[in-house]
């Protein structure tokens, strides 16, 4: 399905639809109507696609792990709420994300705080708010969290984030097995445990492992999770207490290119018995809550970024479509957000005319050659006023982009649910 030559068409068939006139619909609503009513550029998210994705993953992990939504992928409270109502907790990386999760209805005890640079103000905010766990990533942070706990007269539940050895690497961006600002190196894990144990206001209850991101191979993920259980057993052995939480990270990927195959949930499901057996065989792990914290995987497929064509031009044999959307709203689609996903994202005409397709560069309105949503998207003929949609845009879109660059207005964000569209962030 998602390894078809035209990935955009496959994703539309999987998650959305077209009517008899070739108009792309989200949740039963024509994108042309939404663009007319709410303006462009525009982010549109389908709540039912989010639910379906969450439920399929939960079924694949049944008996082994629960799911916390990684808020960084899309921190809009309306999006967080969709996953919370399905049973997910939340993983946050700032005090503002803590506030967004609370606004979405997530109880503080179901929120965990990760990230390599937690400041004193954010720590005060989450400790005072009764956060469930804080994941420690360096020695200074141990002392900072302990100080916050003392100021508020509480004991804070903490976990150690471990930067694993090379055996646990994998995914499009390796986050283990090499020098890293994230977490304690596996080689110093025992010393880090002792440092936490020396702080009276802290209670070490778990492990956080995040070995890589944008992983599309189920076998790699299963190997990383098995490795994580081994690290968890070592932590429990050092503290002499059973672990309460084993956070095996996120890293589940989604297809962005025609050669990408979607993550095989059936293979994940087939690997669960061995992981469950490992847990049950070790009394120090058997009672732990195992959690995964995907973000991109849950929210990405549900979103589209819609832009209107301003001009079409030929330049020395190349066709350019200039739109009112660009990297200032969707940096990832431009290929300028790290090295995880480069361009081109799957991109489609909102109204499919059936005309002959040609490789088309889709660019934005900014005064930089970096403002390019696609280098060579296979698109039918387009004209001023037509619409294009960037798929896989529910994660790392608006809030992961340089929205202040050139001072263009912010786009609206819509959530489509039950046949109705709700503005969840107004345009400027």
From TrEMBL:
SUPFAM superfamilies: Alanine racemase C-terminal domain-like, PLP-binding barrel
Listed InterPro entries: Ala_racemase/Decarboxylase_C, DAP_deCOOHase_LysA, De-COase2_C, De-COase2_CS, De-COase2_N, Orn/DAP/Arg_de-COase, PLP-binding_barrel
Highest rank taxon of the organism: Bacteria
Domain Orn/DAP/Arg decarboxylase 2 C-terminal: 43-394
Needed co-factor(s): pyridoxal 5'-phosphate
Domain Orn/DAP/Arg decarboxylase 2 N-terminal, chain residue ranges per copy: 51-299
Key words, A-Z: Decarboxylase, Lyase, Pyridoxal phosphate
Family (UniProt): Belongs to the Orn/Lys/Arg decarboxylase class-II family.
Alphabetical list of PANTHER family matching this protein: DIAMINOPIMELATE DECARBOXYLASE, GROUP IV DECARBOXYLASE
Protein name, UniProt field: L-glutamyl-[BtrI acyl-carrier protein] decarboxylase
